[in-house]
Amino acid sequence: MPTAIITGITGQDGSYLAELLLAKGYTVHGLIRRASTFHTERIEHLYQDPHDPLARIVLHYGDLSDSSQLTNLFYEVRPDEVYHLGAQSHVRVSFDMPDYTGDITGLGAVRLLEAIRKSGVGCRIYQASSSEMYGDAPAPQNEQSRFQPRSPYAAAKLYAYWMVRNYREGYGLFACNGIMFNHESPRRGETFVTRKITRAVSAILAGRQKTLFLGNLEARRDWGFAPEYVEGMWLMLQQEAPCDLVFGTGETHSVREFVEEAFGYVNLDWREYVAEDPRYLRPTEVPLLLADPSEAKRRLGWEPGITFRDLVRIMMDADLEAAGLPAPGEGKRCLTDGRLAWLRKP
């Protein structure tokens, strides 16, 4: 039975990845931060009593700022695979907290790599890189495109990216960078623009909100469905040799288009409810991100199936139901792909 460690297991990607690995027979160890309140909502349906000798998901308190604790974790668990998803991952927040972002998002990856090297476990590691590293590089962006980070978050991710490559080449670690373009789901954090939109539409329809304030409506992103992307993470660590790959849909849509799709799904005119607020603008904006995922398809056979329109409807159905409103259900009908049979709920 293979064993994996997931940092950031309580996040969107971590929760979906935990589901996938459990469905494949793994024992999953997750790293979570100690807090006075629980932040495990996304994995509550996976919880198993730690007193159960057959439990296959185990949570450990820890922090990416604590290198000694990370090293001890590797000595204790001795995993076959590590998926490093933990980070300060909000781009706009990184401008307000650049030092913290650099410490956790950048140096956190180095602490993890050092823990693997020092413990001598010999496991494989996946590093969650980001399309934000490309900044305003010409689109479409692939493995050969130049990096031009335009935020503290992107710069920290780029530092982690190069350290993964250095540890791979210098110490022989099986270390991979998955350069993921934007991927969303009903489990996306509520401050990220896509989820902020779908929650607001539901709240407006329920009469609990009047206005949705957003930043740059013209920013264009390559948006996919998160459960499909965690499959790509797993596939990378099943290959004979480590590599770095780009994952995306090959399509780009603006924030305005996302707004139009979400409001249109419930027959509301978005122009009556949306206002722009400068506080949500970034000091340095990234106008366009568009993936060229052809190498991931060639090497892994990975190809997304959920379209942009499907994605918006999946998220809208979930947030309408959470608001106690009837959902059209068109998003649910999109989730019939046999590849996602492991998905326990949207």
From TrEMBL:
<dbReference type="Pfam" id="PF16363">
    <property type="entry name" value="GDP_Man_Dehyd"/>
</dbReference>
<dbReference type="InterPro" id="IPR036291">
    <property type="entry name" value="NAD(P)-bd_dom_sf"/>
</dbReference>
<comment type="function">
    <text>Catalyzes the conversion of GDP-D-mannose to GDP-4-dehydro-6-deoxy-D-mannose.</text>
</comment>
<dbReference type="InterPro" id="IPR016040">
    <property type="entry name" value="NAD(P)-bd_dom"/>
</dbReference>
<dbReference type="GO" id="GO:0008446">
    <property type="term" value="F:GDP-mannose 4,6-dehydratase activity"/>
</dbReference>
<dbReference type="GO" id="GO:0070401">
    <property type="term" value="F:NADP+ binding"/>
</dbReference>
<comment type="similarity">
    <text>Belongs to the NAD(P)-dependent epimerase/dehydratase family. GDP-mannose 4,6-dehydratase subfamily.</text>
</comment>
<keyword id="KW-0456">Lyase</keyword>
<feature type="domain" description="NAD(P)-binding">
    <location>
        <begin position="5"/>
        <end position="315"/>
    </location>
</feature>
<keyword id="KW-0521">NADP</keyword>
<dbReference type="GO" id="GO:0042351">
    <property type="term" value="P:'de novo' GDP-L-fucose biosynthetic process"/>
</dbReference>
<protein>
    <recommendedName>
        <fullName>GDP-mannose 4,6-dehydratase</fullName>
        <ecNumber>4.2.1.47</ecNumber>
    </recommendedName>
</protein>
<dbReference type="InterPro" id="IPR006368">
    <property type="entry name" value="GDP_Man_deHydtase"/>
</dbReference>
